[in-house]
Amino acid sequence: MDTKLKSSKFGKVIINLIAIILVVITSIGMLASYKAIDKIASGKDKNYFQSYEFIRALSGMSYNSLYDIAKKSTNDDITPYDLLVKDDIRYGKDLDYINNFNTRFQSYTQRYLNLEYFAVSTKDKVTTSNGNFDIKVLENGDIDIAPIDTDYYQFYIVINYDDLGKAIVKDIYGADKNIVQKQIYEVTPSLFGGYYNELVEIKNINVLLAIPRELNYYDNISEGINNLQNEIYGEIAFVFALIGVAFIIISALLIPYNKAKEIVGFRAISKIKFEIGCIMGGLTLALTLAASMFMVNECIKGVPGNFIGAFFKEITLSHSTYYAINFIVWLIIFSLYFYAALVVKHIFKIGVKKYFITSTIVGGIIAFAFRYTKETIKTLSEIDLSEKNNKLIFKIVAINAVILAFICSIWLFGIIGVIIYSVVIFILIRKYADEISSKYRILTNATKKIAEGNLDVEIHEDLGVFEPLKDDLERIQSGFKRAVEEEVKSQKMKTDLISNVSHDLKTPLTSIITYIDLLKEENLSDEKRNQYLDTLDRKAQRLQYLIEDLFEVSKASSGNITLNIESVDVVSLMKQTLLELEDKIQNSSLAIRTNFSKEKVILQLDSFRTFRVFENLVSNITKYALENTRVYIDIFDENNSVEIILKNIAKEEIKFDVNNIVERFVRGDESRNTEGSGLGLAIAKSFVELQGGTFNIEVDGDLFKVIIKFNK
User: Fold this and answer.
1) Exposed, middle or buried by CB within 10 Å (0-12, 13-18, 19+), for 345?
2) Tens digit of each residue's pLDDT (9 = 90 or more) over 596-642
3) Which long-range contacts (CB under 8 A, 24 or more apart) does 484-492 make?
């Protein structure tokens, strides 16, 4: 067991080590691709100085040059608004409008600190500049660009504005002249935004605008150049990043699921709800895009930008530090994709359906709604129609109102929600109604079969709302079956009664008739006559006893007996019975064993009927008990009752039904060879029950036991 435990721990360490190595190798591979990214990006033909935004900035700075020249020419305290806004628009503007225009104009140069300019008026040769240009102005007012050092400047342009306000690109470096010229005609100055239709045209000046190779300020120009580089580098870097993502996802998917479960963090991340996981996935993708667009370019150039530079604005980082930060970021990104692949593997392992129900918020809500709907339908199907169900109806209506209120609160989508909700409710109600109809048909079919006399019909289906009716129908069915069985039994008993009574009455009566005929003989001797008379007397007495017993059991069954209740000592009464039947007991060769209380056991009984019960039971024992066996008679005096038990071994094998042996004219010997009416046990049972007692018979093999119980 210790070996297995160590092996399990070792396997867990190995799979985690493999996962770490995969992520580290992918991250290092991404860093190694930076040289290829730089080489590919360098060959991309995208020029910021030909962009729409930059051309707008050139137009805006030309207005700035126009204003500077105007101030120098007039030596007046002229405002940008006074000079640059058309006359027909300038008058009538309020003070806020004027101040806003001037403020925006004055702040314009702060947005383009890296843009150096030199301007000259073609009329009076007045110049203005914000740089250290060593520029000469020619006789015709053109600008001599010969001194411009292209090693220092990465871009310059000379724009001549004639007396009609037409802008012509005279000279340019760092961009395509035709492209720039075309855009100058089309763009509006970025400086003034919505004011450009209100500006005067630039006339009679020549402007030189230049951008140094080394940008000393972080302004709109440096940001534009950086963004363009980020776009170029980002597109390429993102492709390499996707290759790394594909590698890490495939690697994760190749790991067996039972091993993947042992990776640190797997269990926690697999429990994250799907919607939250999607948000995390979106953030991971956004981080991948941001790293590709901004971080890679920063690292390759070794200058702060919009990614690392946003966090380390005041700190100068070494190139190796940039690479270290890049490694950590890519390590995080590829780790997230690795875990995302494991989650996908987990989804397909447990099943999309199960995952949707157990690990998504929407699935959880749907599952809850489904469970609630199912429970509601089950509750409705089990509703007790015999009682009022106001609470249940109110609960369903209230919950339905809450659902509708929530759906309607979603504005336009609420209408769609109500439609969907109504369709779902329709489907559920239709399904519920179909189930009720189906269960009703089952119930009516069973009822028809019972009505046709088939009392063995069984309903195995759950009838839901009709379940109480099913129970009632089963009780009715059971009652009918008992009634039919009782009726059949009664009819059989009547037939047996007639047969038995006829037999038992006919036997002594036949004997009487026979012996009467014999007595009619004239030559009959006195001895024979006396013998025949004795036989006639016995048969007549037997017939009398039989008729008396028949009357007794008839009156007992109908309850037409008047009991003489008195205090009776059942012990003494049993002893008296045994004494009177001593001859029969001795002739039967039975040994009677009694277990009586030494004290009196007094009960409120009819002494004559109780004696008759004891007499019949003991007589039966002498007739049907096995010779030379012991008979046990016990009387137990309990706290609240008295039990009288008689036990004997049967002479014949007990094949009869103990429940039928107490019926009228039923004997233990079906051949009816023994004397008796077959009414002894029936009379005994009837007399016991008339006095409030219970009479039961138990059989264990050949042991026959009668148990009589009277409450005190």
Assistant:
1) buried
2) 988 899 999 999 889 989 998 999 999 899 999 999 999 999 889 99
3) 484/455
Distance CA(187)–CA(234), nearest Å, equals: 28
Q: Are 135 and 118 in contact (CB under 8 A)?
A: yes
Separation between Cα atoms, residue 141 and residue 503, nearest integer Å: 160
Token pair in block for residue 475: 């009780």
> What is the average per-residue pLDDT within 227-251?
89
- Between CA 571 and CA 602 the distance in angstroms is 8
For residue 510, which of 476, 471, 539, 544 has the smallest C-alpha distance?
539
Which 3-state string (H, E, C) describes 589-655? CCEEEEECCCCCCEEEEEHHHHHHHHHHHHHHHHHHECCCCEEEEEEEECCCEEEEEEEEEECCCCC
The answer to whether 683 and 514 are in contact (CB under 8 A) is no
Burial annotation 168-178 (CB, 10 A radius, 16+ → b, else e): ebebbbbbeee
Q: How confident is the model at residue 530 (pLDDT cuts 50, 70, 90)?
A: confident
User: Cα dihedral sign for 61, 67, 68, 69?
Assistant: positive
574: left (phi over 0), alpha (psi -120 to 50) or beta: alpha
Buried b (16+ CB within 10 A) or exposed e, 508-533: beebbeebeeeeeeeeeeeeeeeebe
- How buried is 564 (Cβ within 10 angstroms: 0-12 exposed, 13-18 middle, 19+ buried)? exposed
- Identify whether the C-beta of residue 605 lies closer than 8 Å to the C-beta of residue 691: yes
Collapsing DSSP states into helix, strand and coil, what is residue 148?
coil
Residues 221 and 113: their CA atoms lie apart, in Å, by 8
Cα distance between residue 444 and residue 463, in whole Å: 12
Contact in structure between 421 and 406 (CB atoms under 8 Å): no
pLDDT tens digits, residue range 16-74? 999 999 999 999 999 999 899 888 887 776 788 988 888 888 888 888 888 888 888 87
Across residues 426-450, what is the average pLDDT?
76
| Interacting residues of 708 by C-beta distance below 8 A, sequence separation 6+ | 613, 643, 644, 645, 688, 693, 694, 695
Residues near 224 by Cβ (< 8 Å), separated by ≥ 6?
48, 51, 53, 54
pLDDT (mean) for 445-471: 71
Cα 440 from Cα 434, distance rounded (Å): 10
Distance from first CA to last CA of the chain, Å, rounded?
71
pLDDT bracket for residue 672 (50, 70, 90): very low
Mean per-residue pLDDT for 396-405?
Answer: 70
Residue bearing tokens 């049907």:
624
Residue closest to 58 by CA, chosen among 174, 164, 216: 174
**Buried b / exposed e along 192-204 (16+ C-beta atoms within 10 A):** beebbebbeebeb
Task: Spell out the domains of the chain, with CATH numbers in brackets.
Answer: 2-32+225-357 (no CATH), 48-217 (no CATH), 361-443 (no CATH), 484-560 (1.10.287.130), 561-711 (3.30.565.10)
